[in-house]
């Protein structure tokens, strides 16, 4: 089986993917849309992309592409602890505080703001397609006074020196990854809990529309773990709602709630009904 992931190698997504699929062929993609398209076009059987981080919240690129562009199902969720490291070329490890530019994925930069403000308040910050891309770039340009924020594995892969350990703003920092391409995906690690993720829209002119939709879950005592809005990209002020449902009630009860919402004129898109797999981070 071929499994795509947001690359390059040594990124957090790569780490999650190789832990979940240790015996499969892993294919690197340069962006989240490219990875999802790889599943759509049959280049790979499954794809692994980030969906949410403890500090920065949802990965909007993933959410929006899955809502607007495709109907690929979510088959599993991987939860990975995230530890960010500041790394430089080995010839710069003794003068790392002279760094003038820090490169990383925008999420990683945002997760490390306190460290950056303390040690590099004047440094230029540059977003890259992934953390591993940033590490590879730093390794390829040892003559420049640049640093990367990336996982420990990136330092090992690209032979960089870690000069700032576990620099993320929050000690318990995790990222959720979705496995796309099949309605059910079994992984060789223990799962905990199940979740149903939907996208919901309600008629524009219905007073209290969102309240009425949520009441369909409330009176049935169905637990919602997350709700957020995203632009519909049609008219200013129109949104869809991304909702995570903890699957603790009988499935029929949840199906009835969704049907009640549809009878009120709402529209429901199911992303997936999947198991959650926590793994140890690197």
From TrEMBL:
<dbReference type="GO" id="GO:0005737">
    <property type="term" value="C:cytoplasm"/>
</dbReference>
<dbReference type="Pfam" id="PF00800">
    <property type="entry name" value="PDT"/>
</dbReference>
<dbReference type="InterPro" id="IPR045865">
    <property type="entry name" value="ACT-like_dom_sf"/>
</dbReference>
<keyword id="KW-0057">Aromatic amino acid biosynthesis</keyword>
<dbReference type="GO" id="GO:0009094">
    <property type="term" value="P:L-phenylalanine biosynthetic process"/>
</dbReference>
<keyword id="KW-0584">Phenylalanine biosynthesis</keyword>
<keyword id="KW-0028">Amino-acid biosynthesis</keyword>
<feature type="domain" description="ACT">
    <location>
        <begin position="198"/>
        <end position="275"/>
    </location>
</feature>
<dbReference type="InterPro" id="IPR002912">
    <property type="entry name" value="ACT_dom"/>
</dbReference>
<feature type="domain" description="Prephenate dehydratase">
    <location>
        <begin position="2"/>
        <end position="182"/>
    </location>
</feature>
<comment type="pathway">
    <text>Amino-acid biosynthesis; L-phenylalanine biosynthesis; phenylpyruvate from prephenate: step 1/1.</text>
</comment>
<dbReference type="GO" id="GO:0004664">
    <property type="term" value="F:prephenate dehydratase activity"/>
</dbReference>
<dbReference type="InterPro" id="IPR018528">
    <property type="entry name" value="Preph_deHydtase_CS"/>
</dbReference>
<keyword id="KW-0456">Lyase</keyword>
<dbReference type="InterPro" id="IPR008242">
    <property type="entry name" value="Chor_mutase/pphenate_deHydtase"/>
</dbReference>
<protein>
    <recommendedName>
        <fullName>Prephenate dehydratase</fullName>
        <ecNumber>4.2.1.51</ecNumber>
    </recommendedName>
</protein>
<dbReference type="InterPro" id="IPR001086">
    <property type="entry name" value="Preph_deHydtase"/>
</dbReference>
<feature type="site" description="Essential for prephenate dehydratase activity">
    <location>
        <position position="175"/>
    </location>
</feature>
